[in-house]
Amino acid sequence: MRLHAVLLACATMAASADEIRLILHADDFGMSHSVNRAIIEMLEAGAVSSASIMMPCPWVAEAASYARAHPEKDLGLHLTLNSEWSTLRWGPLAPRDRVPGLLDPNGYLWPAVAQTASRATAQEVEIELRAQIEHARRLGIRFTHLDTHMGTLYARPDYFEVFERLGREFAVPILRVKPSEAAVAQAPQAIRDYLLANEARYQSEGVFRLDSLLTDPARGTKTYEERRAAYHSALRSLKPGVHMMIVHPGYLDEELKGATASAAQRDWDRRIFLEPETRELMRKLGIKLVGWQDVAPAGR
User: Fold this and answer.
1) d(Cα 209, Cα 103) in Å, to the nearest integer?
2) Residue-wise pLDDT tens digits, 209-221
3) Among residues 300, 254, 211, 274, which one has the least CA distance to residue 41?
4) Max CA separation in the chain (angstroms)
5) Domain-wise residue ranges, the chain
6) Which residues contact 190 (CB under 8 A, 6 or more apart)?
7) d(CA 146, CA 160)
8) Which CATH number fits domain 17-295: 3.40.605.10, 2.102.10.10, 3.20.20.370, 2.40.50.140?
């Protein structure tokens, strides 16, 4: 085992059993300049402890430049098989003739997870994800983990097997969650069966899994105050263990408003977690912000 992995394993074992550790994670790095500005600001301020980069997106060069200049930051790859908006679109990085099942009629990635899952083979998924990982390596990105945009790699067991294989091959953890009623409820039945069937193996191999994943605890909020209250409530609900909360920061500018209807909510995410009140709440609750590289042994 590499020294880095040994040190991470020791740090993980040394953590107090009653400690609340949170990977406060910013999604969609590379999507746009507005999103990049917000994520960089939050990483620099320590307001988030992790982020992940979308390799097919138009502003990935800016994200890669930051990653090269800050190799100490906890930056993963947000493996991307969908392009969900109507005005800001992206296609695959692999040659299009090798991944036809991933393409919508206009040559972009499909907007919806179900469209991808009903058309793309696991082989096409693996070809595209390898292209994204290799592009990250060419750009000099030191990635600490792999996760999945829109949860697409959880749509089918054969997609998830590709996900696991890439994590092993590149010796980084992938996004997994321990089985619980909440976690199981979010997954398709075939994936539930797959994960439960492999639970004993995960335990015996010491595979790192989050105790919980909060993908959108402020869903449906209509105002800044409502969203702030929802996030604060989610923070208060955390129990001892290692958790991940996903936020989607941005700046409310013309670029972001032209890309997505969630522009205001993304601006609120940035502001809420930069607020002294939110950071003081986490301190009072005893929440320790950590990155993937702090809690997950390499390759596990």
Assistant:
1) 32
2) 999 999 999 999 9
3) 274
4) 54
5) 17-295
6) 156, 157
7) 12
8) 3.20.20.370
